[in-house]
Amino acid sequence: MFFSTVLCAALAAWLPAASAQDAGSDVKSIPLRTHSLVSPYLDSDLQSRWFDYGGDAIIRADKYIRLASDRPSQSGWIFSRVPLTATNWEVEVEFNINGKGNLFGDGMAMWMTKERAQQGPVFGSTDKFEGLGIFVDTYKNNRPGTVFPYVMAMQGDGQTTYDQANDGKANELAGCSARGLRNANFPTKARITYFQDKSLTVDLMYKKEDEWTNCFEVPGIKLPAVTYLGFSAETGELSDNFDIVKVETRNLYSPSGQTQGQKDFSRNKYGSQRRQKKGGSWGWFFLKLVLFGLVCVGGYVGFTVYRSNKRRDRF
After folding, report:
1. Is 243 helix (H, G, I), strand (E, B) or coil?
2. How far is Cα 292 from Cα 60, in angstroms, rounded to an integer?
3. Which domain of life is it from (predicted)?
4. Helix (DSSP H) and strand (DSSP E) numbers for the chain
5. What DSSP character marks residue 273?
6. Cross-strand bridge partners of residue 252
7. Where are the domains of the chain?
8. Does residue 115 contact residue 126 with C-beta atoms inside 8 Å?
9. Distance between CA 212 and CA 191 in Å, rounded?
10. In this predicted model, which residue has the larger pLDDT, 8 or 49?
11. What is d(CA 292, CA 225) in angstroms, rounded to the nearest whole number?
């Protein structure tokens, strides 16, 4: 009886904790194929189903998408065809900035903007954008005391011009220096995480492989509800190769099943949109409850049989 009592007590203590974990402390994610890029990047018709590209961008299917090459006056971009409507999201991009010279420029950008596929003067894309730009600036124009490459965020309102002469100083939402990001001997990455009205966080992997370094976190930021994901880069008189190797985009949600926003436009073989499964947490909770009851009943029955056998042995 003691064993079954202890076992039931332990399970009773574990059950609320497990159900609380199911109810939603950790953030879960759903991969978004519509906003992700992996080699070979193109389908059998040498087209991308989910992205458009232009300018001087070239695609080497086995290695990378080169937004701008190590030659003067290069400018290229790639943008999603489908808008990203997720309320909370995370984009992890593996990229490579490399070149031969000691003098290099200009930089690359990741975009979450209402505008899409427009070539322009801001790292290869349009100025006066509405939404978010994350810039990896590799050439220092006029910013004393700042170490380059420099990573910064700008929240555009559709009217403000990027302060190119001062490397975006007038527009900076937040930023950090990232010396060592260029010509790294391992894959460099950036991870951008956004929770609507709560925070925007940028982490970088450039110091050591598999080691993330926080660049910045901005609280209370709100972006447009519908944006397009894009990447662009440009060179001037000085140049570098700016390569996108891999992009993984995820819709973030709470384990309670209250997902917000993103409709995955990927379709199954019957043509219907895939829907997220709901109620998984509650189903798991009730399964645990049933198992808990069965274990307690089994313990009691086992003890009863054991006690009956002991009495029979006496006589």
Report:
1. strand
2. 56
3. Eukaryota
4. 2, 17
5. B
6. 29
7. 2-22+280-314, 28-253
8. yes
9. 9
10. 49
11. 44
Which pLDDT does position 172 carry in this prediction?
Answer: 96
Confidence of residue 303 (pLDDT cuts 50, 70, 90): low
What is the identity of the amino acid at 7?
L
Q: Quick one: 155 exposed, middle or buried, by C-beta within 10 A (0-12, 13-18, 19+)?
A: buried
Q: Is 138:151 a contact under the CB 8 Å cutoff?
A: no
In this prediction, residue 254 carries a pLDDT of: 76
Q: Does residue 187 have a pLDDT over 70?
A: yes
219 contact partners, CB below 8 Å, separation of at least 6 = 198, 199
What is the predicted pLDDT for the residue at 103?
Answer: 86
Torsion 177-182-185-188 (CA) sign: positive
3-state secondary structure of 290: helix
Do 163 and 170 meet the contact criterion of CB atoms below 8 Å apart? yes
pLDDT digits (tens, 9 = 90+) for 52-80: 999 999 999 999 999 999 999 999 999 99
**What is the three-class DSSP state of 171?**
helix
- Burial 12-32, CB ≥16 within 10 A → b, else e: eeeeeeebeebeeeeeeebeb
Measured distance CA(71)–CA(73) in Å, rounded:
7
**Tell me, what's the pLDDT at 307?**
61
Closest CA relative to residue 135, chosen from 266, 52, 231: 231
Is the predicted pLDDT of residue 276 greater than 70, yes or no? no
d(CA 269, CA 62): 27
Tell me if 111 sits within 8 A of 156, measured CB to CB: no
Tokens of 105: 């420029």
What is the pLDDT at residue 14? 40
For 138-160, the pLDDT digits (tens) are 999 989 989 999 999 999 999 99
Is the CATH code 2.60.120.200 the one for domain 28-253? yes
